[in-house]
Amino acid sequence: MPTYRYLAVRHDGRRQRDILQADSERQARQILRDRGLFPRRLEALRDQNASPQAKRRGRLDTATLTLLTRQLATLIEAGIPISNALDALTRQAERPRERALLLAVGNRVREGHSLADSLRPHPTFDLLYCSLVAAGERAGRLAMVLERLADYLERVQAQRQKARTALIYPLVLAGVSLAVVIALMSYVVPQLAAQFERSNIELPLLTRLMISLSELVLTVGPWLIAGLALCMPMVIRLLRRPRVRERLDALLLRLPRIGELIRLLDTGRLTRTLAILARSGIALLDALRVSRDTLSNRQMRATVDVLCLRVEAGISLHRAMEETRCFSPSLMHMVASGESSGTLDDMLERIADTQENTFNRRVDMALALLEPLMILFMGGVVLTIVLAILLPVMRLNTAITM
Predict the structure, then answer these.
(1) Sign of the four-CA dihedral 378, 384, 387, 388
(2) Which residues, in sequence order, are CB contacts of 72 under 8 Å at separation 6+?
(3) pLDDT given for residue 7 in this prediction
(4) Taking the model in full, what pTM does it have?
(5) Cα(63)–Cα(321) distance, rounded to whole angstroms?
(6) What is the rounded CA–CA span in Å between residue 332 and residue 324?
């Protein structure tokens, strides 16, 4: 049944936006009139033919997707059919975007498609999500797989939230400090420089340097800001090119500290995803191909491509990792132990926990060192400006008292 998005006016004059299902546009308008609404705009939703921009706008955030996944797992675990569970989630959805997505998925399920095939046309559900749902349907353990998937999404959401929260204070501190420095250099220093010129006293070297720097900021600063504003779109477009992005990712991996953090993050994602897929009954080669798309660094993705080729040729996973020389010896030993004992999924889960804990610990340590260093640096900059202002004043006072 087609889905329509509408804009209607209620009896009290307020506007209402929502979606509904009807066999035709005429029936949709009649349904709105029966509800006491006066339709102003009505358009059919076509998910398959939507533009890429429209599809990106229709994506759900991770928190909403996690909640939907866990609710769907609970309903299926209770023995409710998938179509009825989707209908229940649709009725309780608060946002039109969420309701439209659930309606579209429910329509395809009622048409006879599997849940995984019904999810694939929508960009909200990535390759990992659809692959796990398909594996759960094949094995008859869909509720359990959805629970694991919800746990994974919650972990990803918590990691992102922690990173954002940790960066708030340094960013605010840097912004306020930069604003103070710009205000001093563009307003306070020029005002005092004019006063010092009338006093006919010899200015200290630090003050002369600060006045020259202030003049440079006033003359070059606006042009520099305009140039950065014009160059930013070009830089963003350049970074979207695959070759440029691959070179940049390879360079980041070679940096001493940053490269180690990126490797820890992507290794944790790789092993976590492999563990979930292996426990869901997906073959190792297919699990590697799906896990590749969860990595952020393109150089690490290329490494996983090499792993796929080696595993496809019949080489064990730990031997393939040894050939790439991109993984730590302890990780490869744990993978070899899991393969030999038949507990690869459990071992991959332990590796993921270790990698994520190490990553979080090092990020926390770096942020703990960054905050006092930023305070000392910006305090030193402000102190230098204040000294450049006070030194001539002190010299002028000395001249007056003599």
Answers:
(1) negative
(2) 85, 86, 89, 146
(3) 74
(4) 0.72
(5) 34
(6) 11
Residue 34 domain boundaries: 3-45
**Residue 308: which residues within 8 A CB-CB, separation 6 or more?**
285, 288, 289, 292
Residues 228, 326 share a domain? yes
Residues 207 and 315 in one domain: yes
Residue 138 three-state SS: helix
Residue 331 CA: distances (Å) to CA of 82, 349, 362, 365 = 40, 12, 18, 23
What local confidence, expressed as pLDDT, does residue 2 receive? Answer: 64
Please choose, from the candidates 35, 22, 19, 28, the residue with its C-alpha nearest in 3D space to the C-alpha of residue 99.
19
Residues lower than pLDDT 50 in the chain:
47-57
H-run or E-run covering 208: helix 205-239
Residues 233 and 106 in one domain: no
- pLDDT, tens only, 316-355: 998 999 888 888 888 889 999 998 888 888 999 999 999 8
CA distance 247 to 253: 10
Amino acid (1-letter code) at residue 258? I
Residue from 153, 363, 344 nearest 264 by CA: 363
Identify whether the C-beta of residue 282 lies closer than 8 Å to the C-beta of residue 135. yes
CB atoms within 10 A of CB 334: 19
Q: Please tell me the predicted confidence (pLDDT) of residue 53.
A: 44
Rounded distance between C-alpha atoms, residue 203 and residue 211, angstroms: 10
Asked if residue 145 lies in contact with residue 136, where contact means CB atoms within 8 angstroms, the answer is yes
Domain for residue 164, yes or no?
no
pLDDT, tens digit, 9 for 90 and up, residues 242-261 = 888 888 888 988 888 888 88
